[in-house]
Amino acid sequence: MSTKVTLNFSEDLIPATVNTDNLEIRKSGSPIGIKVEYAAGSDQVRLVPQSTLSPDTLYQIVIKSGLMSASGDEATWQSWQFRTVESAGETSQGSIDGCMSSVDVEMLRAVNAARSNARSCGGTHYAAQSALRWSCKLDSAATTHARDMASNNFFSHTGSDGSRMGQRMNNAGYRWSSAAENIAGGQYTVGSVMNGWLSSAGHCRNIMSSSVTEMGASLITTSPGSSGYSRYWVQNFGRPAN
């Protein structure tokens, strides 16, 4: 499982008290199966669900009074909630929480919906493909390029500094073995920009590629009259290097 709920405390904990008796994740009021990961001398605890979390579902994290710090202070009972997104495929909860907006979630769902069906891209037939997961590093590379185009009023795969797609991915810390990029300008919705990309042979091939496993994307809006387009869209696709 890639999903982990990380808790950071203000001081080290007594290891014997860091267990499922004192830490829980609940769904509809009932505890779910978790594994507790804790290294002595650390102020960080990871709760690892032992089964896939349900999409679009409210969960509760509970800390009970039996949890104790190394200084002997006992925790007070407390809880808080988080909701999983409706659908993000195999994307980790860390990526969902760390870098995905509602538009990002909609984009990932739209791309994976397109990949789930066989289609023709400019006369080339593509079988249905497996779903992609979201990468915060590819998201960062896409945002860098979308913001560059919006700020400097141009539309190209080459950045204002001469950078190309692969270089921007490298700069974002993404080491890739396969990569692709789609750009678009002006469309107001995820649906409209996806329709445009899927109607274009090259963009469609990037979306349907079997060579990539991850994606990131960005939408940057501009002030009226400040740039050639009111909205700049970038999709980055990649497969991590081994």
Spatial gap, N to C terminus:
20 Å
How many separate helices? 6
Strands of the biggest beta sheet: in what spatial order?
A: 3-2-6-7
What is the typical, i.e. mean, pLDDT? Answer: 92
The count of DSSP E runs of length 2 or more, i.e. the number of strands, is: 13
User: What spatial form do the alpha-carbon principal axes imply?
Assistant: elongated
Oligomer: single chain
Which residues sit in consecutive blocks of at least 5 with pLDDT less than 50? none
**Percent of residues in β-strands:** 25-35%
Biggest sheet, in brief? Answer: 4 strands, antiparallel
Keywords: Signal
Domain SCP: 108-237
Organism: Allohahella marinimesophila
Domain SbsA Ig-like: 3-84
Description:
The protein contains six helices and 13 strands. With 242 residues, it is an alpha+beta fold. The chain has a four-stranded antiparallel sheet, with no helix packed on it. The protein has a four-stranded mixed sheet with strand order 10-12-13-11, sandwiched between helices. A three-stranded antiparallel sheet has the order 1-5-4, with no helix packed on it. A hairpin with a 5-residue loop joins strand 4 and strand 5. The longest helix is centred in the middle third of the chain and has 17 residues. It is elongated and about 65 Å long. The two termini are 20 Å apart. The mean pLDDT is 92.
